[in-house]
Amino acid sequence: MTALRRHWPRIAITLLPVLLALAHATGLWRLDAIDRLDHLIYDTRLRATMPGTLDPRIVIVDVDDASLTRQGQWPWARDKLARLTRELTGRQQAAALGFDVMFVEPDRSASLDKLRQIARGPLRDMPGLAAEIDRLAPTLDNDAAFAAAMQGQRVALGYYFTRTEKPGAKGQLPPAPLLRAEAFPPGRGYATGWNGFGASLPVLAAAAPAAGFLNTLVMSNGDGVIRAVPLIARYEGDQARPGYYESLALAVYRLASGTPPVRPAFAPGGPGGAAPRLQSLLAGGLRIPVDEAASMQVPFRGPGGAHGGSFRYVSAGDVLEGRLAPGELKDRIVLVGATAPGLQDLRATPVGAAFPGVEVHANIVSAMLDHRLLAVPDYAPGYEVLSVLAAGLVLALGLTLLPAPRAVVLALATVAALVGVNAWLYQRHSLVLPLASALAMAALAFAFNMGWGYFIESRARRGLMRLFGTYVPPQLVDEMLATPGRYSMRAESKTMTVMFCDMRNFTRLSEQMAPAELQTFLNTVFNRLTHVISTHRGTVDKYMGDCVMAFWGAPIDTPEHATLAVRAALDMAEAVRNINNIHRTTGRPEISVGIGLNSGVMSVGDMGSAARRSYTVVGDAVNLASRLEGLSVHYGVEIVASAATRELAPGFVWQELDSVLVKGRAQAVAVFTPLHANTESEQQPTPAALQQSAQLQRWADVLAAYRRQDWAVGRNLLDPLLAADAKKILYQLYAQRLASMALRPQDPEWDGATRFETK
């Protein structure tokens, strides 16, 4: 929860695209760009999954350029269409025949009308002429001939619906709609409503057993591309029976399938008693999913046209000229249409910008025969909302909390999951579900999140690096970068541990080295010591000649600051010993260090003048550490620490050195030196640990006797320690003190503290 609170602005900026996508998904604010992207995704997916194979059950008789060249311009005389119909239904034995052509006007090419005009004109007095014309009328009426050719055959004609302020009607619709208005619940306008039509002549409409509308651009989704075609349409005019009429594709399918009845199937009603939503049409045993406009998604088989490979194209001229073998189209579903560019029956579809309109119907019939139907389920908006929410929350949290490489992987994995689930539902269950809003959200969320991270947080991090990069070890800077707003150069008081480390014998060393060699040597030593300090999470304050100053506990709060400082001091002493081992082999003089440690309240921050400032610590506790560093040579140890540091770092074996009064302080301070980390088990101490513990206890008794001015007892206690380690300067120092004090009378104001007037 702390990380979430810390990064809430970045999470909030990442959630903005989520809100936009949700507004689009719920319909509060439809975004055209997302709709266009969804169309693009749908079209791409459709093309990628098309079968691309020939459906031999459906044949398209094409009024192409070759047919027009050989048979004359369009429209052809109806007697020619009658011959075409007889050829297809008789000699070729087609299972069903559909005309993607309309016959709204009478055939003006026939000679019957002209003969009757002559009979009513100059030759009206010629006896028997009118009767002879009436006798020959059946052979001279092309519309009647066409109607006779369709009589008793499974033929479906085409017509179109219109909607105008003043309804118009031409021709004749089927005598009864496919579904009466009463078949649908009241309260909702199912399918698209029309009030006019242009249909076939009554003589033709009465002869054909079926007819279907040709409207295909009803649901073109604003870009003129046919992705869905209505299967039923609602007629609301008064020139035919009101109700729901079927499309040409549905009419042809029903003719070929034995004309099964069609029933609507509804989803459960909405809240508040709302009318149920049309979900599908049941044609016999076939369930055809439809959308709210009663439109069916067209599952195109492949590229359109004679060379598209989805359907066989036969030139209408070849059929009229009898070039097909008898029965070559037996049991085939035949659709008559035009692909000649001048006839303007080309449509824009996802698989082609100039797709033959007749092949759109062919694809629908093919899909119905195969039960290869796409569905836009009624829960598609809910799916869109859930996918946006789930992906948005994952990205908002993951992109914010993960490092950049993992955040990129998470974003890619989220997009892959969205695409994969959507593609699986499409491929496995034929469900068309929205994807664009989720993808657009993911892309914008990634861009917003990374942009915020780079321009806002990275700027803060770069500022932090400028402030602390030269003082603080890299691992601490990395920790600080997680919450850069918490750190600044502003001074504050904190309990910390400070260290002063001074190099001994530096003057003698500098006299034996050339300046360049001395510089290289100092850099090597300081690099080694600085590495130790950084390893133990310390902050280097400054270098002062042959001295380095460091502190623990800032800028990052470090509760174990004293323990880390003591460990660093022990490792620094060990590093100097390793350097001396190298010096012995090269003939250089050895060096030593004195380290002073103190813990306490001190001020830390950016301090100095307008010309020169630095991140440093000041205070009485800092001054004491500097004084303690100077005492190390006096007691013959490498590290001198105050009682405050010893108390905060109990994990070491300590030896008390003295109680001292340093320059600038009025109270005595107990000082100690750490011998090593306390790693021995209290239950099973080693003999060496037992021996050291006994020596330290004896040493404590020596100090107690010294402070109560019992010089003889102190000397007796010290003798065994001197015998065991005669070279130890600390023991030699106290042996001299005890011998000197024994010559003086006891001082009633004696406090056991040693006074140092210089550093």
Please characterize this protein's 3D structure.
This protein has 759 residues and is α/β, with parallel strands linked by helices. Helix 14 runs antiparallel to helix 15. The strands form 6 sheets. Strands 19, 20, 21, 22, 23, 24, 25, 26 and 27 form a 9-stranded mixed beta sheet that branches. Strands 1, 2, 3, 4, 6, 7, 15 and 16 form an 8-stranded mixed beta sheet that branches. A 3-stranded mixed beta sheet has the order 5-9-10. It contains 24 helices and 27 strands.
Question: Quick recap of the structure?
Answer:
The chain is of the alpha/beta class and 759 residues long. It is built from 24 helices and 27 strands.
Features:
759 residues; alpha/beta; nine-stranded mixed sheet; eight-stranded mixed sheet; 24 helices; 27 strands; 45% helix
Overall pLDDT score: 87
Low-confidence stretches: none
Characterize the biggest β-sheet.
Answer: 9 strands, mixed
- Gyration radius, in Å: 50 Å
Termini separation (Å)? Answer: 50 Å
Q: How much helical structure, as a percent, in the residues?
A: 40-55%
Strand content: 15-25%
According to DSSP, the number of beta strands is 27
Q: Please, what is the oligomeric state?
A: single chain
- Class of secondary structure makeup: alpha/beta
* Large-scale geometry: rod-shaped
Number of helices: 24
Task: Describe the protein's topology.
Layout: H1 2-6, H2 8-25, H3 32-49, E1 58-63, H4 65-71, H5 78-91, E2 96-99, H6 112-119, H7 129-140, H8 142-150, E3 155-162, E4 169-170, E5 193-194, E6 196-198, H9 202-207, E7 210-213, E8 228-230, E9 232-235, E10 243-246, H10 248-256, E11 262-266, E12 278-283, E13 286-289, E14 295-297, E15 312-315, H11 316-320, E16 333-338, E17 346-349, E18 352-356, H12 357-370, H13 380-401, H14 404-429, H15 436-468, H16 474-482, E19 492-504, H17 506-511, H18 515-535, E20 539-544, E21 547-552, H19 561-586, E22 592-608, E23 613-618, H20 620-635, E24 639-642, H21 643-648, E25 652-661, E26 669-677, H22 687-707, H23 711-724, H24 729-741, E27 753-755
Parallel strand pairs: 1-15, 1-16, 2-3, 2-16, 3-7, 4-6, 5-9, 22-24, 25-27
Antiparallel strand pairs: 3-6, 8-14, 9-10, 11-12, 12-13, 17-18, 19-21, 19-22, 20-21, 22-23, 24-26, 25-26
Helix pairs in contact: 2-13, 2-15, 5-8, 6-7, 10-12, 13-14, 13-15, 14-15, 18-19, 22-23, 23-24
